Amino acid sequence: MTESDIPELEIPEWTPALSMGNAVIDGEHRDFLGKLGHVADLIARGDRRQIKDAITAMAAVLKGHFETEERFFVSVAYPQATTHRVDHLTLMNLVIEIEGVVDDSEDFSTPRLALAHFTQSVIDHLTEADMAYKPYLAQLERLEAPVVV
Ligand SMILES: [Fe+2]
Ligand SMILES: [Fe+2]
Description:
Blueprint: H1 23-45, H2 48-76, H3 81-104, H4 109-142
Bound molecules: fe (ii) ion (2 copies).
């Protein structure tokens, strides 16, 4: 496989279709997708140092976001919390793998493929696992429980 065989990476931007109906969660999702898009842009340009810094920044946002969600799950005794946490762990491990291939690969075809795989997994997570807890978020707001921070 050569560089030119690998399709362009398309990173979706946040849209209202992804809205969870909560400003904190939506803001974190939007911030994360922006950071992911930045990583993709840098991989296309091929500056290893900048790519690694951008992955670190993206990972920090993602970790913080997962902690937000997991605190919320505890506060509402979300029944799918364990499964959801495993999904988060898997996604964080994919980020570590991307960092590894950025270090190890000669060109940037492998990081691009790894990022494409991660992006698909993240989108699946946002549209399936996260959407599954949306009704609980709505319930929390109706009850006027503490805002998720
Ligand atoms: Fe999320
Ligand atoms: Fe999540």
